[in-house]
Specification:
mainly alpha; Arc Repressor Mutant, subunit A; two-stranded antiparallel ribbon; two-stranded antiparallel sheet
């Protein structure tokens, strides 16, 4: 069976890109506490938005979906699940809430991972919850003509309990000794978890929940305010490519983790940048119109009303819509499409520039 020894990561010469990512994340973490004390009310609105996006996106990656209205009602516990997908969504909601509220008291052990998996399925009426896989699973993909082929074969069922026990023990030992930066340890642990693929179902969702848990425990709580799962969903093609590339030679302990480390650190860094952008929008007492205008200037390319609402969670949807309408009328923004297909973009020439342009 594959052996694990995370202390050996201290001997790896990581490339400059990884070193730079770690340095930048450390810098953002250093400013984190200052920001968290500044605008507690506004930050709580970010927490609620992040919960919705995390639950929706992590399940959506696995093809588990419901409507946007239903997802908000389920997260707010204003309704009960109607079908299997919604039951699994509610299970994810509960595990994520537990991590948000009790992460300091959740040990990284095999038995705890089983309990979290059990809770993921507690509403779904499926017997697989809280149990390691009992049949060999495969990570597969489909060709353009619909034929399925195997990308990677995880560990066998009888090897799984020992492997999960081993990665947990090695992770805890490496954290306790401080021999390896946790920003390197976490991606390696998650990659090994995915290659073990310990459950008949729910491996991807569990890996994302564990990522959030490990980051929180190490002081990187940005996922509380900005959904890491939402960023992963937006880049899921890269996510799958990186998972495949870093699996080669895994069974022999000869795989290169670098690409997955870069990917996951890039997700964390993107979340921190997004977090600071949103906090900076709160830094002054501005009208809804001015907040929307400032948020729009931060967007590159075209964008939707929903994307502005993400940046301004404290503003009502109707206020955002009114501000966007006014900005279009004033010539600051252009608008294309109708109804749900409506998109906005910064005008190539501002109203001031138009006024300055000499008349022919």
């Amino acid at each position: 069976m594959r052996e694990f020894n995370y202390s050996l990561l201290s001997d790896v010469r990581w490339d400059n890109e990884i070193v730079s990512l770690i340095a930048q994340i450390h810098e953002y973490k250093g400013r984190q506490e200052l920001y968290l004390r500044q605008k507690p009310v506004e930050l709580e609105r970010l927490v609620e938005l992040a919960k919705i996006q995390s639950t929706e996106s992590s399940n959506k990656i696995e093809g588990i979906v419901t409507t946007s209205v239903r997802i908000k009602e389920l997260i707010a516990e204003k309704t009960t699940p109607k079908n299997r997908d919604e039951k699994e969504i509610v299970g994810y909601r509960d595990v994520l809430s537990l991590i948000h509220e009790r992460y300091e008291y959740i040990p990284i052990t095999s038995s705890v991972i089983l309990q979290l998996h059990r809770d993921l399925y507690k509403y779904a009426g499926r017997t697989i919850g809280g149990k390691f896989k009992n049949t060999q699973n495969h990570i597969s993909a489909k060709t353009g003509d619909g034929k399925e082929y195997v990308l990677f074969t995880p560990l066998k069922p009888y090897e799984t309990p020992g492997a999960i026990e081993s990665i947990c023990e090695n992770y805890n030992r490496a954290v306790d000794t401080g021999i390896v930066d946790v920003l390197l340890l976490i991606p390696v642990f998650i990659k090994d978890f995915l290659c073990i693929h310990p459950f008949n179902d729910g491996n991807g969702r569990m890996s994302r929940l564990l990522t959030t848990l490990l980051l929180y425990q190490s002081g990187y709580v940005v996922g509380r305010y900005i959904s890491l799962e939402h960023i992963i969903e937006k880049t899921k093609e890269t996510y799958y490519d990186v998972l495949q590339d870093t699996s080669e030679g895994w069974h022999e302990g000869e795989n290169d983790y670098s690409a997955f480390v870069k990917y996951l650190l890039g997700i964390v860094l993107a979340a921190y940048k997004d977090f600071e952008d949103r906090v900076n929008l709160f830094s002054e007492k501005l009208s809804s119109y001015d907040l929307v205008k400032r948020a729009a200037t931060k967007k590159i390319g075209d964008f939707t009303k929903s994307e502005i609402l993400e940046l301004c969670p404290g503003i009502r949807s109707s206020s955002v819509e009114a501000a966007l309408k006014k900005l279009v009328e004033e010539g600051y923004l252009t608008r294309t499409g109708q109804a749900r297909s409506t998109r906005y973009a910064l005008a190539k020439e501002s109203p001031k520039e138009k006024k300055k342009r000499p008349k022919k």
